[in-house]
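re: ur question from yesterday

yeah so i grabbed the chain u mentioned. its 127 aa long if i counted rite. heres the sequnce exactly as i have it in my notes:
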Amino acid sequence: MKVELSGLHKILKDPTRREILKCLNDKGPLPYGELMDLAKVTNTGRFNYHLKVLGDLIEKLGDGRYALTERGRLAVQMLDEFPERAVQTRDPKDNSKKLLIAAAILLAGIIAISILLILMATNVIKL
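ran it thru and got these structure tokens back, copy pasting raw so excuse formatting
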């Protein structure tokens, strides 16, 4: 499977595939089982899928070990030069504060309408 530059982002955005490339870059050619262990993949079907998607970024050597191709080394170099930005997560407290404010505003509205209805019912306010 040949990797096109336009599809490289899709291939490299997966953390498992990035880990496979990193392992091969750091350790050199590796046998299937060792690479699978280092990449922390426990399902062989899932691992085979990732190897297939990596296409010509990796190659299987004559002795059965997997290694980076020249394209694979360039992909790793690109990953090193343009590291993935950390995903910023929201603080759950921020959401609970917003929910508390919304509930307080809703409660204040219900109280105001209730008072208005009571005053209208007792003829204090006529509309």
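noticed a couple things. The chain is about 65% helix and 5% strand. also Helices lie at 5-12, 15-27, 32-38, 44-54, 70-81, 92-121.
anyway ttyl
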